[in-house]
Fold:
Amino acid sequence: MPYMAINLGGVAVGVAVVLAFLVRWWFREKHEWTALVPFVLAHLYGMLAALAGLGTVSALGMAAWASVWAANVGGYVGLVWGVGGSAPNVTRAHQLALTSGGYVIVFLMTVLLFALWKWAPRVPNGKLAAGAFSGVSVALSGTVAGVAAVPLGSSANLLGTWFTQAFA
Structure:
């Protein structure tokens, strides 16, 4: 599997998805806070999935890589060919590694996301997909969004430690 790196265009695509959903939430959903919950939870899941899938040969790793690749290509085309800018690499130098317990939490969140996708008719699947995509797109960056992935990963590791203590 190729090295997972995000360029400025990929991060711009992730942020653009967030901005588009904020505009939709404000005008179409009349800024009702509960309408943001599926998107925000999926966004956080996407950030965690990027940390978990970084460099692993797994289904989640391949999905995260495909999302990063799509964001990088789309962002590069938009920045370089669309507006005449550039798309330098903005990947954070050191990624947070998940513990075995952290991977358990990622697995449980993956099952939860697919269960919502399949059996929750009132949760729009587009919000889940866009949230996860935008989360993966910004999680590897060295900016504020990428730094936000560190406490998220640490929280997953902590919850995973509690899980393994309770069930192991």
